[in-house]
Structure formats: C-alpha cells, structure tokens
Fold each of these.
Amino acid sequence: MARAAGLAVPAANFQTLWQHEQGEVYPGPHYRRAYCLLYRATEPELGFRNALPDEARKLEFTASSEPHNGAHVLAVERALLQLTPGTEDTDGQGVQQRILDAWKRRHTGGDPNKPTLMLVGGYAGSGKSEFARFISQLTGWPVLDKDPITRPLVERLLVEMGSEPNDRHTDLYREKVRPLEYQCLLETAYANVDCAISTVLSAPFIAEATDPRWMRRLINRCEARGVTVVVVWIKCDLDTMHEYISFRSAARDSWKLQNWDTYAAGIDLELRPVVPHLTVDNRLVPRFRSRTRCARSSGRCSRRQGILLYGPPAAGKDTITGALTELDARYVTFTRLKIGTGKTKGYRMGTPEQLADLEARGDVIYRNDRYGNIYVVDRPGLDQAMQGGRTPVVHLGQMAGMEQVSTLFPAHWVRVLLWCSKETTALRSPQRGDTDTAARLAAWDATQADLAAYPQAQWELRVDTDTTAPRKAAKRIDDIVRTTSSRA
C-alpha cells in the first residue's frame, strides 16, 4: 500500500501499529498520512483532529449487530424510561439511546456517539449520587462526585479561614469556597472529555443550572471539544430529602438536620435548570414507607445507649471510663479510628485509603484533625460497639463532635462535661506519658474557647475532676444511664 501511494516503506512493525490501534501511541505525521491513504479518508474522518469549517465528516459508523432483545436489555430500557423530558426541546429518546448504546458497546470497542458530559443535579438528599452510579454501571462512564473529590481540601480550607470544616451554610463558604469546588469539579471533567471519555458529574448545581450565562459557557466549551452536554435534574420532596440525609448521616449535613425548618425554607421544589434537561422523579411512593422506616429506626434507637465525655486534655476521660467498665461490664471504651503516627494505645489505627472509603460511603460521623493526626468516629465502629446491648463511652474534645455524634447517630446519648484546671492538665499530661504537653495546654485553651461558643449546650452531668474522684463520677454517670434506660 505504501509503495502504491509513492511513499517510502514506513519503519514500523506490528507492535508499533498495535500501539496506534490501542491508543497507546499517537501516530506521527507520516503514519497519519499513511493511514489516510490506506483508508481513503481525511484526518478528521479518522479522528486525528477536529474538522475544519470546510471539511465534512463522511465516515459512517457501523451500527451494532447485537440484537435488541433479551430480558436484560428490556429491563435496562424500562429503567431508562424514567428519564423524562423536563422541557419540550429536550431530546429524551436520543439521550436514552446514547446510554443504551454505551451499555451495549462498553465491551465491544465502539460507541457511535460523541462523548457525553452528563450533569446530575438536585438538592441535598434527592438521590443524585445513586442515579449517577446507576448510569455509570450501565455505561461504564466514570462518575465525578463533587463531595468526595473536593471535601478534604474544602474542610482544610474552611478551617484555615476560621470556619468549621463542615460549614456549608455561611456566606464565607458560599462566596469564597463553593466556587472553587465547582471549578475543581469541572477542570477534572474537562481532563476526561479531552480524552473523549464520557463523564457523569454529580453535584447540586443549584446556582449553576439556573444561571443562563454559566450554562452557556459550559455548553460552548464542551461543544468546542466535540462533547454533548446532558443535564439531568432529580426531583424530590422534603420528606424524602430529610430521610435520605438522615440515613447517610454525613457530617456536612449536621447543620441541615439541626436547623431543618430554616434549611427547608430555602428550598424551591419547582426549581429547574434554564437549559433543555431531563428529570427523574425520586420521591418515595407510597409515602408510608418513610413513616415505617422512621418507626423502625426509632424502635432500634430506643434500645441503644451511649455516653459522650467532653473535656480538655487530661480531664480524666480515660480514668473515668476505666471506672465505668469496672462498675458494669456493659460499658466499653469506644476506640476512635486514628490515621497518623504517635500513640497507638486506645485507637484503631487506620490508613488514608480506609478513611477515603468510609467518607465515600458516608460512614464518617465526625472527623477531627489534631496533633498532626486524623481522629474519626465512624458508623461501623459505633454499630459494633453497641452490639449485644453494650454502652460505648466516646471521648470528644470538640463541641462540633458532640453535636454531630448525638445528631447523626441514632441512640440515647448521655452527655457529660468533664472539666479540670489548666494547671491540672499541665501536671497530669507528663504523668500519663505525653511528650507534647505544650500542645495539650494549647488544646486546653482551644477547648475553653470551644465550650464558650456553645452557651446553650445541654448536659446531663457536669463533673469537676479536680475535686471529684473517678469512681464517684462513674457512679453518678451510671445512675443517669440507668434512669434513662428505664424511661426508654
């Protein structure tokens, strides 16, 4: 073929050509010319570059020969019928067929459609992540979920800016941090679509999908790359959102759950994207499912108890917990998950990968970064600690942690404030083996300021450990737990 075209025989072996076919090596100009002569086509037709204005794409894709029947195909087709046009100018059938084609061809090496960037939007708890994963399982398209991608950076940024790591409701977050989240998400998506990889984005897109200029910029940028933008909006009702948010128990949702009426007042259930879009109705039907689940949850909660001990370093949390375990075998120390170095006794040591997996599943109840380490109260750990009617004792040094654990993990929690003077912390810290007493004293100051920021905090018991013996404090806590248990 090369000789017939008047070309010198290319210095290529079967391995080089195979790498071209597999996309591992991009053909140089001489190879591209040879391919064009071989297939009697232009570079745009072969996909080497985008077509110029006067060049037409003449290359036709071969239709799939796979028969459109079978129970599995029909089940997928029925599921895709849930994608209904939200506006008259939306090509619903085209999007359904694109997803179906990708599902059928993901293992056969070809897709007749241009790459797709699918935006799955909706309010918190509407079911965006579940739907995005459903599409990914059908098509093989990767999912980029805003929260797992940006959360570690966002939490650290919020702390550095003087806010709480789980702040998602203040002007600081909305004006300074939120735009960066979406910028990171889109830049990651562009890296995919530049490689002709269809991608599913999962994020609320509340402000973005309703901003014509923002959507037009996105669509224009994608069209310039030969990418089709599809917008899917998840419709939901307040009861369903509340149930989903409560079930996943993510730390970032604590403010929503504690201030549900205020949060719900800002939700517009009729809000829709300003561009052609598809909708998915994710409301629970029938409604009694929600009430049944809540009733079952309440029954389970009524049988579970736990103790939250809050206080500065060296306030006696370990000592009083030891006295409780001696008093009654049902009391057990909850060992927090620790990712980092240093002291290992009293912790379940974990890895960053394990933490990322917990966060992806929404199983992190509370996370605290201190002393260069990460300390986690996790849902699987609490579930295991409460098995067999046991009562775990959880140690916390942050009011945000107290609120999140008591709000996000259903159980009867007895909240105890343990306090000691700063001088006592300075004395006890080296006695118990700490090598960073200065950091513990700084934490004492931080705890005092933290407590002062929550003047309305509710406590079942306050104990001054400077003057109260551990066994006496344990007995008082046990009396409260037993009283609470009898009422339940």
Amino acid sequence: MMRRMTAIVLGTCILLSGCAPSAEDRYATEIAGSFQSSVMAVTEASAAGDPQSALARLDELQDSLLTAFDAGSVPQSRFDDMTAAIALVRADLELAVIQSAEVVTDDDDDDDAPDKPGNSDKPDKPEKPDKDD
C-alpha cells in the first residue's frame, strides 16, 4: 500500500510540474499558481494516505482547469496535457480507494480466524476424571 501511495505522490508531482507555463504556452502566473496549490493539496492528501480526500482535491483542480480553459486563460495544449495527467492520477487514486476498502473488508472477514482468542480449531480440553477414593 505504501508503494502505491508513493507512486501517487510521484504522479501528482509530475502533474505539478505540468502546471507551470512553458515559453510557448504562457498563461497567467496567477492561474498557474492556483493550479500548483491545488496539485499540492492532492499531493499532501495522497502522502497522508487519504485517497478519498485526494480525489476531492483532484476534482477541484479539474473544475478549475475547465473553468480557466473555457475562459480562454489556458491554451489547448496545456489543457490537454493537464487533463491527461489528471486522468492518470485519478486512476491511481481510485485504485488506492478500492485497495483500502479491500483491506478493511479483509480485516472484517478475520473475525472467525483461528488465531484469535476464543476462535481456536482445537477441541476443548477434556475435564479431569474424578478420583476414586
């Protein structure tokens, strides 16, 4: 699970680097800063092991990107790059959510495990026979 979260954090860092405007795709520094802040929120939630929160922050980032694109503030090439990166990070986060749900379900299924006290497969000890005096 930790390896998965590390991959997600790395992916969001790559996404973060994609938010900075390049020479050919200049757009407002304010917008780029907003995107970078949003990506940091995704990264921090991922690093904290909270993929649900990271997904919520990713939704906010995607909404901001779409709004800026519709307003003409983000060029098509940058929009396409960021949308692709968001999709990759989303897939990883959704998988992390599923895996964390499976871990919880697996823990719940262990209620009948034989290694827990009171759930042994061993038969009870027989009682000692009464001594004849």
Amino acid sequence: MSLLTCPSPPSSTRLHPLLDAIRYPVAAGISWRAMPADFPGWGRVYALFPRWREGRRDANGTS
C-alpha cells in the first residue's frame, strides 16, 4: 500500500480571479449581480464567498 496521496484534480477556474471577485463588490459598493463581465459569473463567486469567509474566520482564530 502506498502512502502517497493523490493530487487534487485541476480546477477549471483559477482561484485568484475568484478571490478578486469576492473583494470587488465591497470595494466598489455594488451588489453581487452588478459585477463586471471581467469576473467569473456572480453565482460562482457568491457560492464561494461563505467558504472563503469561514476560512478567514478560522485563520484569525475567531468563531
């Protein structure tokens, strides 16, 4: 039995544009649906937001 782990499958969307898109509505003062077409679809970004927020909360040691 091998102790090597399998690498995760490649993502179809790079993470950096998604994180930029999460921060954009706050910085620009707009709603999720009003995001420019340069970013991934607002639905994908909005779906990732709770996971990102929880990760930040855990990293900061708050609950």
